[in-house]
Amino acid sequence: MKNNNSNTKLILLHPYIQKQGSSSKLWLLAFISFFTIAFLLTLVYTRESITGKTSSITAVVGGGGVAVNAPLPTTVVNTLLHYASKSNDSYHMPYSEMKPISDVLRKCSSPCNFLVFGLTPETLLWKSLNHNGRTVFIEENRYYAAYYEELHPEIDVFDVQYTTKMSETKELIASAKEQIHNECRPVQNLLFSECKLGINDLPNHVYEVDWDVILIDGPRGDGPESPGRMQPIFTAGVLARSKKGNNLKTHIFVHDYYRDVEQISGNEFLCKENMVERTDMLAHFMVEKMEENSFQYCRNNNNSSSSTTKASVS
Predict the structure, then answer these.
(1) What's the pTM value of the predicted model, to 2 decimals?
(2) Contact in structure between 247 and 253 (CB atoms under 8 Å)
């Protein structure tokens, strides 16, 4: 008789196997949770630490510590002036001419707005001496301006196309005086002016800034066909008289003041009554803000260079 009994195989799933898989997942979840919480705590602590340090710095500055906007130390200024005056460039300013400009920049309230006509051997010096302020340079050569800005990206340079010639100085000044109630007013926004002596093609914001110090050391003025500095001198005078803020005075320096064009234009538009100091090469004026309905450049009519314009213009 054939045995019909078959072997029955029974497979048991031990509950420990499932518990072991669940346990591994729980451990992994706990591990991830731990590091997530640790990361969040570290982030919170770091932010509180940074905030605390910032508050400490603010407290130190407010409590008479080192001020963030403090002017350059005197030793640093003197060192910069010393080495700049020893430049091998034959056209650099001597110490006696750089020092008065440096002194005004040091006394200028921070942030100081400094406008410079001309890229010169002193360009980097002016930028450094006004390290907490705004320094803008105006250059006649657009290619040199682009090259200089690429070489020194921290320098703000704008190029301008001058439309004047030194040989036309007398006619240009006469035209400005004829238009003193119209296009060549002492107080106006030159961006909208058609005055032949006004520079009106600079970026808009240049006309909106209340400039504290203006230095005129460009463009070229070495021959009858050179643009001369009549336009920068006239423009500087208008910018100074048209200020909107509470700082009523603007320091204006004119370099190469031994030349006829600089003296004639300076007398007419910056005025002898505003002259603070003059050396052979540098003149320092302090021009005050005027009311919008003012129609004279100088309060004292004797400052006018109507007689001086008869002098020869080289």
Answers:
(1) 0.75
(2) no
